[in-house]
Amino acid sequence: MIIISILVNVVQVLLFIFFIMTGTKIISGKMAEEFKRFGFPSIFNFLTGAFEIIGAIGMLIGIWVPYVALFAGLLLGGTMFVAAFTLVVIVKDPFKKSIPAIILMILSLGVSSFYLF
Question: Which residues, at least 6 apart from 90, have a Cβ–Cβ distance to it below 8 Å?
């Protein structure tokens, strides 16, 4: 069980690093053209970036306060579900473009389920 716990903590740190970087990039407006391509209003740049930054910080805090990781995983998992759905269903990009979002969704929800059970 200790090995699994360490592995989950490593995943949390990796998710923290990834989502801090992408959340900052999104909230700064560097991905504004992509959100326009999706047909989303510009407020979605801020909301998505904020969700990712809040979720990332929650993942890091969740190493010491597990219920925070549970909620951070749900927030990030939901955000990545919407990202994958947007790419495949709304924008009709090839499925392979949604694979990173799906992997991040699975990892985020995996962290949540670890702390749930």
Answer: 38, 39
